[in-house]
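Private note to self, pasted from the team thread so I don't lose it. Backbone tokens:
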């Protein structure tokens, strides 16, 4: 659960979708909240209303919704594709758009006779993806055609599931390499799960391939939001681009059955209006959204630590760790940590506590380096307190240093691998793929350098911690 800084009377429920992981707030408001803010405008990319017929999109949507969507925003182009720009002055606290549920695409838009063919394994994301494929097949006959044709084309999608094997090799050192493979496997399983529906209704899903489904699935994971209806595609609102420092977000008003965005700051005409998709690292951004942020304050890295079978007291240590195994730690937006794979965030020296290096990681290393008597003491201490194992420094200073040097050695090894991986990134030699490959190369560079920065911050803190113990 996360908390926004608000001034006003409002109640929020903050939930997350497993795949389409944009945040969605349920809002019950008496007085309009004003959000504190910190972001910047994007006049450099200003070029609104330069896409043929884009100026017709909002009137079409408002006619379909039978209500005003926005009077202060217009569609334009930015360096990242379509974007929304202020067409009039906007003040912090203004409601800049409202999109009724009636013009949002959600799983319940699929006909019941199609939904009845799905098992429990078919996700909401897959249902909306199938809905998009159906509307795409209808072409101009679709009531959603003006929206569908403005969605990114496959060649414009840069989620890692679309990267070639050679491109994925650029990020092999990152956990996102394996997450991409898992995502591809998940999409393939979902495709097989929806096959009964596509086979029984060929007139609706003629010749839909796994490639088509993967594209639609990625559209949903990169653009949809969680709502009371499940995962929803919200036309016009999904043209808003991401700013990780922004506190503005999309909120739902269940009573009025609509979604809305409140401006977090003042905007002048021509400024690009940005919101936050969530506090995502580049690994999440590139997997689910197909872009990265050059310096992402939410970047993190994962480090694996195992108990080698040749370790002294291997069986005793393994049983102890299993007996006092803590529940998997799951960050708000990110991947889980187990007893072997630990998520590290950038370590800030101001705290002097190594905040960013999980206590569970340090505890794991302490167990690995303990002798029989120390293991017995750790077990007794955990049983008599809150059940957390080895969360305090070992009494034997040498052993405490050994445990942290073990972590340091794993991180140092990983730093060297990242350095080599970053140095190996080179320009594309294929003229036909220069632009696309160069973009994905830059994403790989952003991803790897961000994770390397996190690893180096942990390394620096661990060295200082060990040196302090030696001096004491």
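Design output:
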């Amino acid at each position: 659960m996360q908390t926004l800084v608000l001034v006003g009377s409002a109640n929020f429920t903050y939930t997350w979708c497993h795949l389409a992981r944009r945040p969605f707030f349920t809002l019950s408001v008496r007085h309009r909240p004003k959000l504190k803010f910190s972001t910047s405008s994007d006049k450099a990319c200003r070029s609104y209303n330069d896409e043929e017929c884009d100026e017709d999109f909002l009137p079409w949507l408002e006619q379909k919704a039978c209500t005003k969507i926005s009077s202060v925003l217009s569609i334009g182009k930015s360096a990242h594709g379509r974007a929304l720009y202020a067409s009039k002055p906007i003040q912090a606290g203004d409601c800049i758009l409202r999109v009724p549920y009636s013009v949002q695409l959600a799983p319940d838009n699929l006909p019941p006779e199609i939904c009845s063919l799905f098992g429990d394994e078919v996700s909401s994301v897959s249902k909306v993806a199938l809905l998009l494929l159906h509307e795409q097949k209808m072409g101009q006959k679709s009531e959603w055609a003006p929206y569908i044709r403005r969605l990114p084309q496959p060649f414009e999608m840069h989620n890692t599931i679309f990267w070639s094997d050679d491109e994925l090799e650029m990020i092999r050192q990152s956990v996102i390499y394996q997450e991409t493979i898992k995502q591809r496997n998940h999409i393939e399983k979902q495709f097989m799960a929806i096959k009964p529906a596509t086979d029984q209704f060929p007139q609706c899903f003629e010749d839909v391939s796994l490639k088509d489904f993967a594209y639609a699935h990625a559209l949903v994971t990169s653009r949809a939001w969680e709502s009371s209806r499940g995962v929803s595609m919200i036309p016009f609102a999904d043209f808003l681009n991401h700013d990780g420092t922004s506190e503005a977000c999309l909120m739902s008003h269940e009573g009025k059955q609509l979604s809305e965005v409140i401006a977090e700051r003042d905007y002048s005409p021509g400024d690009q209006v940005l919101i936050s998709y969530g506090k995502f690292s580049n690994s999440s951004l590139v997997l689910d959204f197909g872009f990265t942020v050059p310096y992402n304050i939410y970047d993190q890295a994962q480090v694996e630590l195992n108990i080698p079978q040749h370790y002294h007291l291997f069986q005793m240590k393994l049983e102890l760790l299993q007996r006092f195994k803590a529940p998997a730690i799951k960050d708000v937006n990110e991947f889980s940590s187990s007893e072997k794979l630990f998520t590290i965030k950038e370590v800030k020296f101001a705290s002097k506590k190594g905040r960013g290096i999980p206590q569970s990681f340090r505890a794991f290393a302490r167990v690995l380096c303990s002798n029989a008597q120390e293991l017995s003491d750790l077990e007794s201490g955990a049983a008599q307190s809150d059940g957390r194992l080895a969360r305090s420094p070992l009494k034997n200073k040498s052993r405490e240093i050994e445990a942290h040097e073990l972590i340091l050695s794993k991180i140092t090894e990983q730093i060297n691998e990242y350095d080599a991986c970053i140095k190996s990134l080179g320009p594309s030699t294929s003229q036909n793929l220069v632009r696309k490959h160069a973009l994905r190369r830059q994403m790989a560079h952003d991803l790897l350098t961000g994770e390397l920065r996190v690893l180096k911050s942990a390394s620096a803190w661990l060295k200082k911690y060990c040196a302090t113990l030696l001096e004491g």
